[in-house]
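Dear support,

We are seeing what looks like truncated structure output for some complexes. This example has two components. We would appreciate it if you could run it in full and send us the complete C-alpha cell output so we can diff it against ours.
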Amino acid sequence: MDVLTLAVAATPSFIASSVEFVEALTIVLAVGTTRGWRAPLVGAALAALTLAVIVAVIGVALVTVVPRHVLQIVVGVLLLLFGLRWLRKAILRHAGIVALHDEELIYQRQVAELRAQGLRKTEWDWVGTVISYKSVLLEGLEVAFIVIAFGAGGASAMSAAIWGAIAAGVVVVGLGIALKQPLTQVPENTMKFGVGAMLTTFGVFWSAEGLGTEWPGDALSLFGILAIILAISWGSVRMLNAMLPSGAEVGARNV
Amino acid sequence: MSRTISAIWENTYGLLVDDGALAIGALAAVAITWLFAVIATAAFEQLGGGLLLVMICALLLANLYTAGRRIRQTR
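Here is the complete output from our reference environment:
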C-alpha cells in the first residue's frame, strides 16, 4: 500500500470511524453498567456481523461490478450530501448555535432511562441486546458508508479504508475496556468538523472526476480542496459569531 | 413490515439529509456541473472541478448565513 492510498483512504476512514465508534461505545457502556454485560455485548457482536456483511456485499460489489465513473458519481453525490450535513452541523456547533455533542450527558441520560425500565434477573435482557444492537448498527452504518466511500477508488483503497475503520474500532473499544467510561476526552466535535470537511472534499473530488474533470495533480488536489473547504468553514464560523455573538443553543433539528 | 421499511428509509434519509435546502442545492450543483460537462466538453476537463467546488462553497456559506439570519430574527 503506497503512502498516498494510506493518506486518502485509511487515515480519513480511521478518523471518521473513530467518531462513530465513540458514540456507539457510550451507549453500549451505559447498557452494560446498568443491566449487565452479556446482553449488550451479544447485541454489539450481532451488529458488527451485520455490518461486516453489508461492507463485504455492497463494498466488494461496488468496486468490482459497477463501472468506475458511475461509481465515482454515485459515491461522490452521496458523500457530498453526507459531508455537507456533517460540516453544517459542526459549523453550527462551533459557532455556539447548536449545543456541542456531550458524551457524558448522553451516557447519563441513557443510564437513567435504562435504570427506570428495570430488569428481571431470570430473563435474557432483550432490551439491553436490542438497544446495543440498534446503536452499534446505526453508528456502524455510518462507518460502513464511510468505508465504502473512501474505498471507492479501487481494491487497494477499499482495503486501506477497511483497515482504517478496523484500527479505529480496536483503539476505541480498547480504550473503552481500559477506562470503563465514555471517552469524553476525545475531541469529538473538532474531529466531526474535520470529518465533515474531508467527506465534502471527497464528494467534490469524486463527483467532478466521475463527470470527466481532470484534477491537477490527481489525488494530490484533495489537499487543496480540503484547505479551501476548511477555510470556508472557518469563515462561516466567524460569520455566525458576528451575526449571533452570544450564540443561540438552538435544537439541532430547528436550525 | 411497513414499519421496518419506514424506519430503514428514515434512517437512510437522516444519514444524508439534515437540511432539505442544502441537500437540494448540492444536487443542483452537481446537475449544473453535469450540464457544463455536456455543453462544453473541452473546457470542462480543466474547469469542471473548480466550478463544482465554488458552487458547493457558496451553497454552504449561503445556507449558514440564512440559518444565522433566521435565528437572529426569531430572538
